[in-house]
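DM from R.C. (forwarded with permission)

"hey, sorry to bug you on a friday — could you get me a structure for this? deadline for the figure draft is monday and I only need the backbone to look sensible"
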Amino acid sequence: MLGGNAGSEEQITSGQPTEVRVLLDPAFGWTSKISGNTTVHGVGDPGELGILCEAIKGNPSDIVSICHLARSRHGHFGLIVETPGKIFAVADRIRGYPLHYGRSASGAYVSNSARLLALRAQFRTPDSAALREFTMAGYTLGRSTVWQGLYQLQAGELLVWDSHRPASSPACHRYAPYRPNPRRQGSDDDYLAQLSAVIDRVFRRVVEKANGAPIWLPLSGGYDSRLIACKLRELNYPNLRAFTYGPPNNSEAKIAWEVAQRLEIPWMFVPSKAAGARQLFESDRRRAYWRYADGLSTIPSMREWQALSYLTSTDEGLGSDAVIINGQSGDFLSGGHIPPLLWNKQIPEARDFFEALIAKHFALWTNFHKQPHLDAIRESISRALEGWVPRDGAKEELIARYEELEFQERQSKFVINGQRMYEFFGLPKWQLPHWDGELIDFWQGVPFELKFGQNLYKTYLCNMDFRGLFRNYDPFAWRWPTHMMWVVPFARIAGVLFGEKAKLQTYRQFWYFSHYHNHYAMYGYRNFRRTFSSARSPISLQVERWLQENEFLVGNLNDGQLPAVGDC
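My reply, with the result:
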């Protein structure tokens, strides 16, 4: 196990005098250890760190074996190893702990903090392509950040840099890209049996790692968090609690309460109130969190901000020893994001691939859906896929590459990066069982006909049906509170009279008062009214605010202009 302190933010740590230096920000909880002529810095699963450290120290020139070993690990970690002559940096298979690197006139660096590295290397030239990606999606693509010269390791990537040659380019090895390659090997029942066995092993590992510490579950009305609760109850984990948040009397909270009752899990509801949301959002603490979590490449998650603010400030809530386990991202891995446009079409075309990606992942501002933005985003997508060109009619290849890009970009950079919130609130012992390496391997090999619509996953859940919580139990979570239910028939009437576009626009103008009221309330009703016709969700407004707070001039987003760079 690693031990010791990483030192102050301005400290440059190094096992040997080197030209390529390691910068560590202690806020991210990394620990350091010197062993002979090797210095190791790490965070996350100590077992995985120990195994990889020994392999790197034992034979640092055998990159193939190191990559193969990293590929076989199931847990989540971040690792930097300084050996005589080389620096290694390893991002786990999901980029659970971000790593950054870059060089400038002031030096060459590897770091656990994008902002510390940018400050030390004095990166001040914006990357216009990355800013366009950030504005349209909420994150940058590939290894880029918003600053030229500052890069991030991607999920499942190993960096090796000759520490005595800072002018050389570091070698980045993708040891575990997420690349579905389904070849049917057995019957549907065989896949069900395999899935059941893998999930059992995953949750035995969860229990072993938690080691009796209090586990807190953010429990929603969906399948993924419900499965986690069921498996931990099935394994008789002794110290289990759950919480749900959102507007008072929302339907998802009612479902979560019923699930907790059936499983006999102590449950707490944390109401999200608009006034409180705005106050917390405008606080210095929130601004500090954004600086902590954005990695200069992604919008920080705000989903549980209000709930965690409360739960970490009350005696009945979360202590520093709590293990947080959420349901991310069972719906993606099990096939819930495969676009019908690609699956249902007999012979999908290359343009369908880009259309599906852009419609879901690059539509935070709908008025950006015009030239030249769309052409530029297509170029960014092709670059992120290392020059791969889609082909008409190649259905399985198109779906596989769609899932690859979503995993590499949105899931690892935006969704999984939500774990930074737990760390910021002093809760570093998070786990993501749906992102266990063994489960990732399994889903990559499942035929698409079993993944589309989560077919195999839902069949497994119904067969398991722990305490009757899956078979014949699929309550619908309304996105409108009771006092706003009139919006639904009103929008439908608008659709009948004026068409589908009018129906959607009716929904959009009342979205401020929906299930997501507390998220919109952070930005105020005036900003909502100003942008509701072009902003897709509260994340759109979050992007706009991030650009403003980081001194990028957003101009008039309603005119679809790419943000110009201000006096940075």
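R.C.: lifesaver. The domain at 12-129+141-174 is CATH 3.60.20.10 (Glutamine Phosphoribosylpyrophosphate, subunit 1, domain 1).
me: no worries. The mean pLDDT is 91.
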